[in-house]
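REVIEWER CHECKLIST
Item 1: Sequence provided? yes
Item 2: Single chain? yes
Item 3: Sequence as submitted:
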Amino acid sequence: MMPTGIPGFDELVGGLPKGGLVIVAGGPGTGKTIFSAGFLYWGAVRYGERGVYVSLAEDKKTFIENMKQIGYDFESLERRGLFKFIESLTLMESGTSELLGMIVEEVSEFKARRLVIDSLTALAQGLKEPRELRVFLHSLLSRIMMGLGCTTILIEEMPFGEERIGYGFEEFVASTVIVLEKDYLDDKFLRRMRIEKLRGAPVPNNRACFTLGSGFQVFPPTKLEKLEKPRSPEPPQDPPGGYSTGIRDLDTQIGGYSRGSTVLLEIDRRITRDQYRLITWPQLADFLKKGRPAIALPGMGSSLRDLNAFHSAYAVSEEEKGRMRYFLMVNSVSREGEQGVIPYNPEAGVDALIGALETSADELLKKHGSPPLIFLSMDSIEFGYGEDDALKLVGSISAWTRRNEGLSLLADKLAYPEISERLTSVSSIHLRLTREHGCLLLYGVKPRTPLYAIKTDTQKGYYQTRLVPIT
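Item 4: Structure as written out by the authors:
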């Protein structure tokens, strides 16, 4: 297999068959040109492999300018002898043999290992008979890919609403068929990729989300990276008069949280606790790293082990632990007297828990001079107390938060839809965390935002949650 170098793609499928024919199909604006250009660009930048782009529809100047806008500097590659652009509009009139001869000559002389032909659709429209297209493809296979070992991408247009690829035979000749699509998720724009065929390699994940904003980037199923000894993160700066979300990219998009806000994080049932911690843990860490206190009532089944996992992941110091209060169900606490751990028993009633939470919040406010972040995992509350009492607790905590200009974060996994609907009216900020093809996606319901793919970044030695807009 040949690595493409396209971010995320090789992680998804392992690359493309070396010396093979690849069909990249899709409707207008789906990213076919950017994917194909990325194949040439990253092949040159990362692997020093020469690439040729044969255009039957677009002139060189337009191509160079469009690619530069997304970070593909083909002018630089051309100066270094790693890239060549061929305009073939006039050769179309001479027929397939003339065009094929030119391509073979250019690829051979340039010693190219990567070739893109844009597009098969334009080529077919210039032919007199469909039979000529079949002859062209077979000749291309034997003379360029097999003879010269050059991996070739053929771009192909798919009209809107059409499921069949092209002319009904090229997908049988190709070693790989990739289909790019535009779609919507809860009225948010989404891009999807389908790997219809990949000869010689298993494809455990044949679908993925992708974006085009800064070049073609694929989002394989989200994996949580592990650091042996994480460093303490550098918290983002707070917005004027408000609080950071703990995630720089999210701050950029929504401007952080106003003081006194109650934030609802609605979580798809398919998402694991480890995955949604990519949003909740940075918020907790942000408060602690800035000298502020925090209170957490984590999800069902949480134990001291989960607390220690958070401490380790964000290098929480002993001083920072002293500003933290954890509420755990009494049957989850294995030993008495653990620092900062407050056991609660649902059988004692919701008023007892409300009183304990507000007492802790008052004490932390008085001791540290700033109101604590109050994080509530709604599944624990809903299961332990039922709908009416859960809403009573949320109402009390939201009122305390507004009164003291603090911040509350409600994580709701939709275990009780009736409660979830009513929580939206309590919250001033409403975020939704979902998943498509294994990729975690976040967007704002209130305020409205586009879709963002979630990634973890550990390059600086600590955990950073990154949001990549899907454009």
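Item 5: Key structural point noted by reviewer: The longest strand covers residues 188-198.
Item 6: Recommendation: ____
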